[in-house]
Design goal:
By secondary structure, the chain is of the alpha+beta class. It folds into two domains: 77 residues, OB fold (Dihydrolipoamide Acetyltransferase, E2P), CATH 2.40.50; 135 residues, de novo design (two linked rop proteins) (Up-down Bundle). The chain contains six helices and five strands. A five-stranded mixed β-barrel has the order 1-2-3-5-4. The longest helix is centred in the C-terminal third of the chain and has 18 residues. The chain is elongated, with a radius of gyration of 18 Å. The mean pLDDT is 94.
Length: 217
């Protein structure tokens, strides 16, 4: 008997498969990080042409095979298509997605991680928020959600205001996470802490980050 599954999630990785197919990585509420195959996704006129693009968010109907998932249908509610005209913003988003993929697990509750990624991409769309501010808050909140945030060795060199900011990020709901501002000096401290955490916690080369930092340097 065939098993079908409906999940809510976002495409965080896209890879060609064969001549016309695609393999995608989905970050889902129900099954965490999963890999799914989409037949004819690259064929001209395919109904899956847009639904397998990076950042596509919505509901996916999957056929559960013996060793893989196969997408049967998709209803996309947000394509984040603003990134098609914003290359720098797109690479911020790809970095967020790559970092989320690093932490996400299969068959794990990743609802908070999915929400954090979604809100961060929304933050990149906002004219009120600087992209690098969104990046630093996203990084720190992610490490906190994963229970891996560690105090910097140079804690005595940071201001009391920074520790209050870290307390706010830790206690804040994801929906309200980006609703605050920082002075230039306080932002520099936050960025330093975020870099420290990433260097010590992420033991993987992040190709999107290398490209992003080249573009923004």
């Amino acid at each position: 008997m065939q098993e079908f599954l409906k999940v809510t999630g976002m495409v965080i990785g896209v890879f060609p498969q064969g001549e016309y197919d695609r393999r995608i990585t989905l970050l889902t509420r129900e099954r965490g990080k999963i890999t799914a195959f989409v037949k004819s996704a690259r064929r001209q006129g395919s109904r899956f042409l847009g639904t397998t693009d990076m950042f596509a968010f919505g509901n996916f109907d999957l056929y559960v095979g013996r060793t893989s998932y196969n997408v049967q249908n998709a209803e996309i509610s947000n394509y984040f298509d603003n990134f098609r005209m914003d290359m720098v913003g797109a690479y911020y988003g790809m970095y967020f997605a790559e970092l989320a993929e690093f932490y996400a697990l299969e068959n794990n509750d990743e609802s908070e991680l999915l929400l954090l990624l979604y809100r961060a991409l929304q933050g990149l769309k906002s004219e009120k928020l600087e992209n690098d501010f969104v990046r630093r808050v996203f990084e720190i909140k992610l490490f906190m959600l994963e229970g891996e945030f560690i105090p910097a060795d140079k804690a005595g060199e940071f201001s009391a205001a920074l520790f209050k900011t870290l307390e706010y990020i830790n206690a804040s709901s994801i929906e309200k996470l980006f609703n605050f501002g920082l002075s230039e000096s306080l932002f520099k401290e936050l960025a330093e802490v975020a870099d420290y955490e990433r260097r010590h916690l992420v033991d993987k080369k992040l190709s999107s980050l290398e490209i992003l930092e080249t573009m923004t340097s």
